[in-house]
Amino acid sequence: MNYLGHAFLSFGDAEILTGNMIGDHVKGKLALEKFPEGIRKGLMLHRKIDSITDVHPAIQRAKVWFRQDYGLYSGAILDSLMDHFLANDPQFFPSSHDLLQFSEKTYNQLETQQAYFPETFKQYFPYMREHNWLYNYRTLQGMQRSLNGLARRAAHIPPIENAYKTFIGHYYQLAQCYYEFIDDIVKAVKIELNPNSL
Asked: CA distances (Å), 91 to each of 21, 60, 138, 183, 191, in order?
C-alpha cells in the first residue's frame, strides 16, 4: 500500500496516521524513541502493513507482470497501483465525494502533527496537499503522475512508461489481486490495533 492505503489503515487516529504516513522516512529502532507513543504505534503499524503486503499471495502474483522490467522496484509500483483500486473501491469510498472528504480530513489531521514530520516528509507534504495526491489515486491520469513521481525519487528505476502500459494491459487482473488482498490486510490491521477485537 502507498500513502492512501496507509492513511486508510490508520482508521481515523491522528497519531497512528502520522506514524503510518512518515514510516518510509524513519529507519531503525532507535529512531522510534523520539516520537510519542501513538506515533510510534503508527510507525510500527506501517512496517507491519509493508511486511504483510510483501508476502501476500495476491501481491506476489501481481508482481510477476512487472518483475521482468522493474525487478525489485515491482513492489513500489504495486504499492501505488493498489492505492488506485482502493480509491475506487465502493466498499470504502462509495463516491468520489467520499474520497475527497477522507483526503481533506487526512491532510487536516496531519497538519496538527507537523512537529513530528521528518525533514523529507515535511518538504513534500505541502505538495501532497496542494495536488491532492490521496484523491488523485482515483484517476488514470493521477496514476500516471504517481508513477512519474516514483520514477523521480528512484534514481535507477527503468523508464516508467512500461509500468503504466502494464497497469492498463492487466487492469482487471490487478483489480482481482487487490480484492483478494484488501480484506486480509484490513482484518490484520484491526487485530494489530485491537488484539481483543476477535
From this structure: 22, 24, 14, 10, 20
- The CA distance from 10 to 45, in Å, is 9
Domain that holds residue 44: 3-197
Supply the pTM of this predicted model: 0.94
Rounded (10°) CA dihedral 185, 22, 59, 57: -50
Please name the residue that has the C-alpha cell 496516521. 17
Question: Residue 193 corresponds to which cell in the numbers above?
Answer: 490495533
Q: 163, 107, 174, 161: which is closest to 135 by C-alpha?
A: 107
| Number of domains making up the chain | 1
Q: Give the helix ranges, DSSP H, for the chain.
A: 3-8, 14-22, 37-55, 57-70, 74-87, 96-111, 119-130, 133-136, 140-153, 161-169, 171-193
Decide if 73 contacts 154 (C-beta within 8 A). Answer: yes
Residue 119 CB coordination number (10 Å): 7
- Apex 121 CA angle, 117 and 125, nearest 5: 100
d(CA 3, CA 137): 10
Task: Tell me the average pLDDT across 43-48.
Answer: 95
Rounded average pLDDT over 116-130: 93
